[in-house]
Design a protein that fits this description.
Blueprint (H helix, E strand, L loop, with lengths): L22 E3 L5 H15 L5 E3 L3 H9 L3 H5 L2 E2 L2 E2 L5 E8 L4 H15 L5 E6 H9 L12 E6 L22 H7 L3 H10 L4 E9 L3 H4 L8 E7 L3 H11 L26 H9 L8 E3 L3 H14 L7 E3 L18 H8 L6 E5 L8 H14 L2 E5 L22 H4 L4 E4 L5 H5 L4 E6 L3 H9 L4 E3 L6 H11 L3 E3 L12 H12 L2 H20 L5 H14 L8
Parallel strand pairs: 1-2, 5-6, 5-8, 6-7, 8-9, 9-10, 10-11, 12-13, 12-15, 13-14, 15-16, 16-17
Antiparallel strand pairs: 3-4
Length: 550
């Protein structure tokens, strides 16, 4: 969305490197005088301030010849300074090591880098590799302004997901989260070195990595910005509950109907969350992969309440591309897109439950038979949840009912690996999405104008489902969260698919979703509300002032 340079009213483009201050030295052409101003030039340049040493060709040559210090930091050629390039601002991304979180900050890295700002993506060696291999669907190597920095972490337990566990929260990745807390010292050391190549440093950290960046505020010219990977709706709902459930406006009354958090998290999660809360109020501002057209009321409430100690809130989502370019090079993932090309408009329901959800064999059987009995076209991504280390250990291959794939051949497609979700959702043949309602999936579906059959599994998902079904009214429930421990039967799956894909009510949802998707697309274009917020954030971290800011 930010492919063009930020244009400021004073005529300075954001894409240009603009120095806060520059110093010009004008020496008397005598060796002693040249030496003194060269020494002073070196001192000034150590503060990352550009120094222009002007003089005659002959006397500049004299200065360089008799002063070896000049070659260390200043190269003088006929009065022209050729110092090592120093960026106006550099951005450091500190993601939580889980695929959905990695993807969001990768998308944000791409947006920030499009403003000609270097981005440093820091993380464990293993999870940076995961980010690249299972990344956001575009060529990372094509963007030269994004730099990956790998840090080692202690060895951690890497259990497989347990599809039969009572709690569906992905406890198997918690050891990786705890291991990533050891990044605190190396990340601080890395950021502490950046002032030599950047005048201002903005560290954007996943809110669940606050512990890691808590020391950054002590670094000169460095600020931290919290990135919230969940919706503003869920964030404010949690704040409202823990602060005593204050009076609500009529528009926010829906918060009283939210499902409880019971069953959303494992017993170990609060300890990790508490570790982050202790370090949370260090943020100079909050970023959301959200959009004011979707949850503007709750973004305003978060700013008003200063929930993290700041009223600076930027809603700069969706991060994902909102226009899908044709990709002939998708190779192994081309099959499902070619299959979609042959299907009628809005005739396919896409079924996927993200990278952290595991279903029992019995539940997979019921889902398969429900899709079959719905007699509707589908693409189903059937893969086990990620482990803490996705490159180690065996991956469970869940069994399907005998003869299932043969019976649905031509009408249904089962994908047992990563699938290009955004491209599938953006395809004209896709008319619905059966989803766990992770926030990434919600925002991608909304931006592509696709209604959702909500089947939340854990974490913030049950509350995202409320936003989708009751606030935005662009989806329906497959099963009420209150019955989360019960098996979702084939009859329930069949009913949900047919209602979403083949009913007047489903058609109304599709119409509302398409209208909202179009509005969201416009918001990220030049002059749109989200584009302006992104421009505002970039202006903020680069020390510029937009004409619309007060």
């Amino acid at each position: 969305m930010a492919s063009e340079s930020l244009s400021l009213e004073n005529g300075v483009e954001n894409g240009m490197k603009v120095d806060q201050v520059a110093v010009v030295m004008v020496p008397l052409p005598a060796q002693g005088h040249l030496n003194q101003l060269l020494h002073l030039s070196r001192l000034v340049s150590s503060y990352n301030i550009p120094v222009h040493f002007v003089g005659t060709t002959m006397h500049n040559r004299q200065a360089k010849k008799t002063n070896t210090m000049a070659s260390e930091s200043l190269s003088l050629e006929n009065g022209v300074e050729n110092r090592m390039k120093v960026d106006q601002v550099a951005v450091v991304m500190v993601p939580l090591p889980a695929q959905g979180h990695l993807n969001q900050l990768l998308h944000l890295s791409r947006l920030v880098s499009s403003y000609s700002i270097p981005v440093h993506f820091v993380g464990t060696t293993m999870h940076n590799r995961q980010a690249k291999v299972s990344g956001p669907g575009w060529d990372l190597s094509a963007i030269t302004n994004i730099h990956f920095h790998d840090f080692p972490t202690p060895t951690f337990h890497n259990p497989p997901p347990d599809p039969n566990a009572t709690s569906k929260f992905p406890s198997q990745i918690l050891p990786a989260f705890h291991a990533s807390m050891h990044l605190r010292e190396p990340v601080y050391a890395f950021v502490n070195k950046l002032p030599s190549t950047a005048r201002r440093i903005a560290v954007i950290y996943d809110a669940m990595m606050a512990y890691v960046v808590q020391d950054i505020h002590s670094i000169r010219n460095a600020e931290t910005y919290s990135f919230n990977s969940i919706s503003a709706f869920c964030t404010y709902a949690y704040y409202w509950e823990v602060t005593g459930k204050s009076a609500l406006s009529t528009e926010a009354e829906i918060l009283k109907e939210l499902p409880s958090l019971e069953g959303c998290f494992s017993p170990e999660w609060p300890k990790f969350l508490e570790l982050q809360q202790e370090a949370k109020k260090i943020s100079s501002g909050d970023l959301y992969n959200g959009n004011r057209l979707i949850e503007g009321l709750y973004l305003d409430l978060l700013a008003k309440e200063k929930t993290t100690g700041t009223d600076k809130v930027w809603a700069i989502g969706p991060f994902n591309p909102v226009v899908i370019a044709e990709k002939k090079e998708l190779n192994s993932h081309k099959k499902c897109l070619e299959w979609l090309d042959k299907q009628p408009l809005n005739s396919v329901i896409f079924v996927s439950f993200g990278s952290t959800s595991s279903f029992s064999n019995e539940q997979i059987k019921e889902l398969a038979l429900g899709l079959e009995q719905s007699e509707w076209k589908f693409i189903w991504v059937l893969r086990d949840a990620d482990k803490g280390d996705v490159f180690e250990g065996e991956v469970r291959i869940a069994p399907l009912p005998e003869g299932f794939e043969k019976r649905v051949e031509g009408r249904g497609l089962v994908v047992r690996d990563w699938a290009p979700q955004l491209e599938i959702l953006g395809h004209p043949s896709t008319g619905g999405f059966m989803s766990h309602c992770g926030w990434n999936s919600c925002i991608e579906s909304i931006s592509m104008g696709v209604p959702i059959a909500a089947w939340p599994v854990h974490s913030d998902q049950p509350r995202n489902a409320v936003l989708i079904t009751k606030v935005l009214k662009i989806g329906l429930e497959v099963r009420d969260w209150a019955h989360r421990e019960e098996l979702v039967s084939r009859a329930m799956v069949k009913k949900a698919v047919r209602k979403l894909m083949d009913s007047a009510e489903g058609e109304e949802m599709r119409k509302r979703a398409a209208e909202l998707g179009d509005a969201v697309k416009q918001s990220v274009m030049e002059g749109g509300a989200t584009r302006k917020e992104m421009d505002s954030f970039i202006a903020h971290i680069t020390g510029q002032t937009l004409s619309s800011e007060t």
